[in-house]
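testing teh design pipeline on a random one, pls ignore if ur not involved
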């Protein structure tokens, strides 16, 4: 299995604190069958900035450490980029990373909202040859309130990635239910772990694939392999998430 979203690099963000923790995470990943991890440090999220060159060096370092520790997991370079005004400018100045140097980039919204400029920027990214993958839409308050906000962005060519822990119920019932709805409405295209450690925010990717219909599990795994290898993915037309009807207007 390939995990396209993980905070495994040592000491760069709120993921692994040091090399010991990075190695622990890699071991935990290996145990559940993950062979390849895209390291995606936070960038421009208000707390952390991690630019391309530094990430690539850290990836090389961690791969060497894993090899000498005998842990059979490969790390590839990526980045979790908070949407920001100068994103395209910085991309052209070689500061940003896609998933394993593909044409797909992980992009993050603030947890409570979708910025007003998001629709235009996600579109402009595509005009510049980058397909944005919106990370954990099921944890965004504006999308939870109105999943049509996500529908519009997906309809316009963006992809999305739900988090394994959401599918597994670790972020609560609402995130789990919304994850299922997004999956069944063709509004999401990947499951990834967004693992930060081996305790409170661990992997659970195999478990998540077991939680969902095997056809979706196979589709998501194929998609992760495809973009990792620089290929495009097969997409089903997005559907609107059915609004829950109020029962006699009471609930
Ligand atoms: Fe993340």
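output:
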């Amino acid at each position: 299995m390939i995990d396209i979203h993980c905070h495994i690099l040592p000491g760069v963000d709120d993921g692994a604190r040091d090399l010991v923790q990075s190695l622990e995470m890699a071991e935990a990943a290996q145990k559940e069958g993950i062979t390849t991890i895209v390291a995606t440090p936070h960038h421009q999220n208000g707390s952390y900035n991690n630019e391309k060159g530094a990430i690539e060096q850290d990836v090389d370092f961690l791969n060497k450490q894993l090899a000498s520790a005998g842990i059979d997991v490969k790390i590839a370079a990526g980045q979790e980029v908070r949407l920001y005004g100068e994103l395209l400018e910085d991309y052209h100045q070689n500061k940003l990373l896609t998933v394993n140097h593909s044409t797909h980039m992980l992009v993050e919204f603030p947890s409570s909202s979708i910025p007003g400029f998001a629709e235009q920027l996600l579109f402009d990214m595509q005009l510049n040859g980058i397909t944005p993958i919106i990370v954990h839409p099921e944890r965004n308050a504006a999308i939870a309130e109105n999943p049509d906000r996500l529908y519009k962005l997906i309809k316009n060519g963006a992809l999305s990635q739900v988090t394994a822990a959401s599918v597994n119920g670790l972020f609560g019932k609402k995130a789990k239910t919304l994850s299922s709805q997004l999956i069944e409405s063709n509004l999401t295209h990947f499951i990834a772990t967004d693992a930060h450690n081996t305790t409170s925010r661990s992997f659970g990717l195999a478990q998540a694939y077991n939680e969902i219909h095997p056809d979706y599990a196979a589709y998501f795994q194929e998609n992760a392999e495809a973009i990792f290898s620089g290929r495009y993915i097969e997409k089903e037309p997005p559907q609107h998430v059915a609004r829950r009807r109020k029962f006699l207007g009471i609930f």
